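COURSE: Structural Biology Practicum
ASSIGNMENT: Worksheet 4, Part C
STUDENT ID: 0417
INSTRUCTIONS: Below are two proteins. For each, the amino acid sequence is given first, followed by its structure token string. Answer the questions at the end about the second protein only.

PROTEIN I
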Amino acid sequence: MPRMNAMDAVVRVLEDEGVRYAFGIPGAAILPLYQALSTSQRIEHIVVRHEEGGTHAADGWARITGEPGICIGTSGPAGTNMITGLYTALADSIPIICITGQAATGVLHRESFQAVDIVEIARPVTKWAVQVRETAQLPWVFRQAFRVARQGRPGPVLIDLPIDVQQGPEIEYDPLVDGRLPFDRPAPNGEAVAAAVAMLLSAERPLILAGGGVVIADAAEQLRELAEYAQVPVTPTLMGKGAIPEDHPLYAGMVGIQTTHRFANQLFLESDVVLAIGARFGDRHTGELHTYRGDRKFIHIDVDPLQIGRVFAPDLGIVADAKLALAALAQRARRVTPPRDAGDWVERVGRLRATMTRRTDFDDVPIKPPRVYRELNAFFGPDTIFVTAIGLYQIWSGQFQTTQRPRHYLCCGQAGPLGWEVPACIGAKLARPEQTVVGVVGDYSFQFLMEEVAVAVQHRLPFVLVMVNNAYLGLIRQAQIAYEMNFEVDIEYEGRGGHPGVDHVAVMEAMGAVGRRVTHPGEIAGALAWAVETSERRRVPALVEIMVEREANAAMGPALDRIREWEPLDDEPVSAGGSRGGQIASPPHALASST
């Protein structure tokens, strides 16, 4: 067996696993890995400005490609800076591998410089966190890391490398006889499939709830095949957005208390059987469980056995890979029934989609946020990749933006870290350089990791940032009303003709990028065209900062039936709780909207 430097062996493993980019910051305790990485002809290292930014860039890469993203840092604070990114990846089932340097094993108990037990810190927010203690284990630990990150419900892994382990003796390793470790994708039980199809076909008003697991499993084609054959409407979750085109006749909108459609909530309340696949029943989706569950029956399919029954007990649970499960369901449906025609239930989906909507055609100044998303939908085509994070702008995005394809709408759903968008745009653009990438950001979120714009400039990565700026901490301020408090933010605000205390256009220009501020709705389309053209021509990010109505809130919770842009027809049913407009349930802090 040939012998080689252990860190060279690690790099060979990374190459064989398909790694093309590694995001990170060099430091003393990780330099042996960096030295080996510098000789790679296949892996390009992207030096980020913050380790958290590196994790989010790896996350954006992974969401587009489905393959693990890589982030590297040194010991101590580098690892702790990665925790938010690890948590985000775990929450959304995204495979990333974070690699940290560490002090020598012999001094870990002596409070050595930048020696922290990062494995124990990371354990709750990873699928696997491990410190390598023997040099000969290195290639095999990395092989296992990729398998763990990919298998079952995907997720993050952390590998901690003490400096003396990295510097250890040569090991016996032959890359020609090594390869990826296999793993099984669980197929569904045949009896369970038959029971699920029977429930679905006997229902009068069935729905398929498509979660992020459908996108992760690349199962959109199988989802449409089943839905079209059985004529069952599909309601995706926020993480499942794009699993079915939003102009498809069977698209039934998005259910929830924040990123939601009125018609979707109404349809869900009328449903009698829900087939949920790859969905975790997050609380921003369900609202109050007793209303969400109602009298309807639930079939829950998930690749992770521990997800079934975690939020509530379904009537039928099936452990299976989403693609295999949907294919099996479609095959069973073809065996027991001819193709179904669209009936009254599908016709009702189309009717509510056409009538139970919210306005977006505002011409007001200051700009109303729904107008921003109307312009985005009109300007960008279905191949555009959108990236967004957390806040009112993300809630408006979920309510108003349309998505036609999987892996074209990236959102950090459960963890919701501010600052996620810019580094995620970097990862997404590297993964799909031929496609337009657009990050929809808020002013406050942009400021969290805006330094990563300099990384995109350095590596000539063009993408567009659309900032929905009310300079008002809108989502937090909206929540504060319920708690009878209102913390002010030290931000100068000079009205629609001025600018907030942070001049975001100047910030972009200071880092070598470009920006433009918009104050009137008629200017948005032209600014978007300028941003795309300038970004591509100069190979830098371009910002369109849109100054919106300062106190615009998102319609959430009971606010859904207080928006009067849609008036129900006389024969429209009343939703749960006696209100019209499709309200499902509301959290204790749900608020009325002034929009």
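PROTEIN II
(use this one for the questions)
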Amino acid sequence: MKQLSALARQSSDLAASSLPILPSLSKLQQLAAGRRLAGSRELHALLLTSGLLSSSPAALTSLISLYSNSSSPVDALAAFSSSPNPPNLVAWNAAISALSSNSLSADALRLFRRLRTNPALSPDRFTFPCIIKALTDLGDIIEIRKIHALLFKFGLDSEIFAASAVVNAYLKMEFVDCAEKVFHDLPERDVVIWNSMVNGFAQTGRFTEAKEYFAEMLREGIVPTGFTITGVLSVFTSTADFRAGRRIHAFVVKTGCDLYVSASNSLIDLYGKCHGLEEAELVFESMLERDVFSWNSMISASQYSGDHVKALQLFGRMLLAGVQPDAITATAILPAISQIAALASGQETHAYLLRHGITNGDVFLDNALIDMYAKCGSIDDARVLFDQMPQQDLASWNIMIDAYASHGRGQDALELFNSMTAAPNEVTIVGVLSACSHGGMVEAGREIFRRMEAGEYGISPAAEHYLCMVDMMGRAGMLEAAKEIAAKAEGAAGAKGWRAYVTACKEKGEVDRAVEVAERVVEMEPEWSGGWVMAANAYGWAGKYEELAAVRGQMRRKGVRKVVGCSWVEVAGDGVHAFVTGDKGHPRAEAIYAAVHGIAGWVRDGGCVE
């Protein structure tokens, strides 16, 4: 308030010199609608000194809305409290809404109670939805029931917006019978109340009920809105129901709801999570208008479907389109960069985030940056970021320990594990066991596993932990111990432990052991191509070429095919290039294959091929 008083004095001096132009009420309302906070305190002071705040109740309401929409609820309440004249009910409603919509629910309840003590004013149909939202956020079912009773007292129990707020509250607190009673008791039901039922059930994970109410809504002849579509699409997205999503897509186009940006965004999200990247792209490219959520959804869809190069290309298009990324964009694009190890792109993205203040201490985003640097080979940069974090969560520790393990820095991983300030989980133990395995620290790894089996970490060994131990024993040449662990892990890990054991046998030259177990892997997983390839390789190592030919023949007859390999290369100044095994579609394929054959020849001539 001292700051406001000073600004008021400053504005008074300016007004006396006839320099400022008094803002019109319509201009103030435009600022509120546009969420433009810049200069709002100066504007507030000018309104005070000009007398407009005293003479126009609408100016006070618009000022409160300006602060609220700009996420400044404290300033909104200050404007309300410092009003020269007693605020009218519209201003009271705006102030309660400002607190409720900005997560100050307890303060909103206190202000509502102050309103109830005002003999000159009574809550109306705009007051109740705001206070019901606040009570819903507080999870206070007793107060919600009291407010529900007040609706009857004031004759507003059939008012559609208040009833919708009550329905939402009851559904979020899983008082389904109460919500349905409110809904069915209404004499008239419009699209707003139907949306409350569909979205309320969808948001609480009751997908069957959400779909039933949506179907009933259509039977009643209610025309859906964009909000309806986003609600029902969220159901099919959560259940990964691609076919139902396509049917809704056709309905969306037929009814013209595809003009809603939110509906198109939901369709992109649905197709992306169902690995329907082509369908998602068709929706995206057909949009007449896109917001940041559109770009985020499409980038996430590409990344989720494994098309990391496309995700990077979309990010570039987003910047060229003048759409500023947010933290969600960053957490979508950074994993794509990590997967193709495009360090230069990662550094440029990090610089952009810093320059635009997007990082801002976001733990989730910092973790994504650490993971990106680690997977791009810049482990020291990852550690610098880790140490600079204001506060690490468990994921931060896990990412950094796993990074050290992946880079063969077992001792660093072990030291970080021993210095953890958070209780480890299953992922932490996998990381540190992997680090011990790659770093040859067998005794340290065995001790951690022993403590895990004894329950000291509150975690029981799972498949991944057994696999780490088989790998550790195998690398150390302790094949018999590795075999015992693989057998012990069979119940939890199936044939995975034996696969790790076969690899260890091959590395140590124990090809007979490898052949014996490879045959067992095929018997356990006859449909998995990896087992057949492993058996074929084992016969090849042992020089049993007849058996090798027989295995390949069986693979052909059973239609078992090896998964095609794919890799990415980032070339400075020339972007990212993707390569698939056997593919010659690259424009410079002839020169690339000539170079590869040349390198292979040099390796052979140098005696580096067995």
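ANSWER KEY EXCERPT:
Q1: Residues 462-563 form a domain with the Serine Threonine Protein Phosphatase 5, Tetratricopeptide repeat fold (CATH 1.25.40.10).
Q2: The radius of gyration is 32 Å.
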